[in-house]
TrEMBL record:
Residues 419-977 form the TonB-dependent receptor-like beta-barrel domain. It is a multi-pass membrane protein. InterPro entries: Beta-barrel_TonB (IPR000531), Beta-barrel_TonB_sf (IPR036942), CarboxyPept-like_regulatory (IPR008969), Plug_dom (IPR012910), Plug_dom_sf (IPR037066), TonB-dep_OMP_SusC/RagA (IPR023996), TonB-dep_OMP_SusC/RagA_CS (IPR023997), TonB-dep_rcpt-like (IPR039426). This is SusC/RagA family TonB-linked outer membrane protein. It is found in: Cell outer membrane. The chain crosses the membrane at residues 12-30. It comes from the Bacteria. Residues 135-260 form the TonB-dependent receptor plug domain. It comes from Flavobacterium sp. WC2429. Belongs to the TonB-dependent receptor family.
Amino acid sequence: MKNNSFYKGRLAFWYLIIIWSLISYTPALSKTALPSLPSSTQQNQISGIITDGTGPLAGVIITIQGHQKTTISDFDGKFTITAAPNDMLIFSFMGYKTLTIPVDGRSVLAIRMQEDATSLQEVKINAGYYSVKESERTGSIAKITAKDIEKQPVTNPLAAMQGRMSGVNITQATGVPGGGFDIQIRGINSIRTEGNSPLYIVDGVPYSSQSLGFSSASSGILAGTTSPLNGINPTDLESIEVLKDADATAIYGSRGANGVVLITTKKGKAGKTKFNLNAYSSFGTLTRTLDLMDTDQYLSLRREAFSNDGITTYPSYAYDFNGKWDQTRYTNWQKELIGETATTNNLQVSLSGGSSGTQYLLSGTMHKETTVFPGDAKYGKGAVHTSLTHRTEDGRFKINFSANYTADKNILPPSDFTYKAAVLAPNAPVLYDANGNLNWENNSWTNPLATLNGRYTATTAALIANTLLSYQILEGLELKTSLSYTDNRVEENRINPSTIYNPAFGIGSERSTLYLNNASSHSWTMEPQLNWLKKIGESEINILAGATFQDQKSSQLAQTGSGFPSNGLIYNLAAASRLNISSNSFSEYKYQAFFGRINFNYKSKYILNATGRRDGSSRFGPGNRFANFAAVGAAWVFSKESFLDTGTFLSFGKLRASYGTSGNDQIGDYQFLDTYDVTGNNYNGVIGLQPSRLFNSDFAWETNKKLEIAIELGFVNDRVFLSTAYYRNRSSNQLVGIPLAGTTGFSSLQANLNATVQNSGLELELRVEPFRSKNFNWSSNFNLSLPKNKLLEFPNLESSPYANRYLIGQSISIQKVYHYTGINPQNGLYTFEDYDSDGQISSPNDQQWIEDTAPNWFGGFANQLSYKNWSMDFLFQFVKQKARNYLYNTSWAGDMVNQPVATGNHWPVDGSNAQTQLYTTGENGEALDAWSYYSNSSATISDASYIRLKSVSLSYTIPTKESAISTARVYLQAQNLLTFTNYKGADPENQSSFFIAPLRQISLGVQLGL
């Protein structure tokens, strides 16, 4: 079948022609439609330069009071504008006091602006369909900017957010390039693990967070499937905002239940053409490794295990102990298999500039990265970002076009070496023989490097394009339309050739296997909007009405082939003697919505904000496709009250609250229908069908009711700013698969479960500026989140299949395990609490001990210091939590696998203080049973709290006066530099025994501007 994409077909050509036509001709049309009245006052050209007393200020907005004419200062702080001799010019710039200067007949002006800490409250915050001043927002919105992002050598935008936002918990699944992240905004709302992803909006375009990967191809190396967010280049981002409460998210309706992540890319700025270059190189290593036994400790353990089992003649397969392997050899397998140094090289160039009417930006990025594994694994990414903004001279018509295209190729081993590095005996044979070939040591072991004969390859491409058109019909009345298109493609394969096996086994290419996956997803979105702003005395009313129309089509063909005539043909699926089609699917998702907002603002002191949305989704049955979601938020800026003196200590104070609903349709397509799958079985030349899903016309939306109350306080001209919020979210009408009896022929029925999950908590944000002077500045940001998750309702839980998984009143992150009570001093075996007192340990009756693995609290502490041309930034991330430790996946002590050094604390040597039961080679059945219970007991869940020096950046700005170079900066950056933890495992963040932890990276870079 022929596939056409945005960037492969003729659609791209016509898209650009239309945009060019709009830019070229609409200014004239707008003037014709709304001609300006000729002025009877003589207009003169005014020019000047704007500084802050130490250097020029670029990007200052200059407007004529009472008129719409506007210009922007260029890179050198210079500006020109046409004005009458008696006009007043208004100069405004974020972080500086707004100035109103009379022209007074002058033609040249010299303007000096002063910093204003309280002006940070005037910063516009992106709330999606509208923007709002920080001081007047009624919702909960967290934000980071390009200044925070560019100080971290990361390839995924979620990595830049870690530790910087309250209520946003992000964990990295693996340190392998291309791996994914998990994000939770104010907890887990849905019982379904796949139903907790937030909505991503990139430059106003909905961006799918659903991976197109095939788990059979990638799960061995990526801890899941490819992350679609790798298609967003962090160096192209201007800001990331996270919408958390109902007031901020309800306008997104069914898609905002789990929060909304707004990603805004960089735009061009007025001024002369600028060329910027940013290049860095990084070196990455493991942050932590397990403290494992050396050869002497390991052989001592094995010797005691054989003795305990009464074995004096060592088995032929005990190569580590019977003399076949060198008992004096020691290999640090963590160093050999996961101890390489990963390198990263990143280069970004950009060209930007423009006039006050038209601004442009074009940037390109090349990124190359290797891994800590042996072999030639590598990851490459290329990204192009373009932005074009234009407005007519009278300011009525505006157009903004942006496009982002990212392509990457990931070549990795088919599986991670982390687990092998932890369990291989320290005296295992060397990897290569004297001739440089893989060493099989007389067929006594499986050489781990044989895996490198296999390969996982993934090629992905992502396009995000958006055009925003706006026209001011009347004063205060604006018509706006957003037209967007996205295209995502994934091609991945994994090969397991026969060469991954020991040649002595005689396995040929008839056992070679190929996994293939080709998937794509593309969508278009159109959002017309009408916005009306009216000032009535000291009040201001803002009304927004709009609609959303979205169509998304996805397809996937995942295949497995095996039995090839030669390994040289392994990439040719037609050469496979056995073919299995794992997935051949096509789905279409249609979404339609109408939304609105009414905002009332009186004296910038009393603010009321109401939002609503009526959603329609093709994922539900005919009677339940539409649902209504709404919210109301209010704020009282009490610091503006006359009875408060804010001129001394209290500079700002605001109370805000919100309540509303949002929904969730993250259930996949066609889930309400009765559907059939192809069996793949041939019966008399006919391929059969089998029913796969039952029809459920009552299938409907999940609903999340959100409540928030917050207070914001600024002291000493906002140099100390405190924000505290309490929230409570209740998610009900859960979309789950209700298990059915096997006699029905179906394992489950997709339906709504009348269960309610509550997330509540406190969020604290503190910003402090201890020092602020001409040469030295220091600011600190601290955030703390204290979440609480609870299952409030679950009708008939005790008689449901979920009885052994959940408990009313407890978190849905709980683990029901055996309660470990110590070691029996008589026989040296692990003991556990017998809950039903029947004299034996069994499941599920005795798996009643509750351990909660949800975080108790988390946050971050960031500091920014600058002294003259030097600047330093660092961020500490901290988490208080419990998690599964290495004991959950390790084998019993005495088996032919290495053990942590702590296993040496054992019975009977350490008596009642022992942590490990008596050693056994596996011949002691009672010891094996005890170990089996132990691996799923409270002993394998322990403290996983940590404090991590997440990022450090040190930079020096080189003076460039009287030089063609406008800016020059060198910098040293580090990621995951230090970790402080008592976690019994390699890393407390990803908590995995099978996948590599996030790497410690140190980068050296240079930034130049011409």
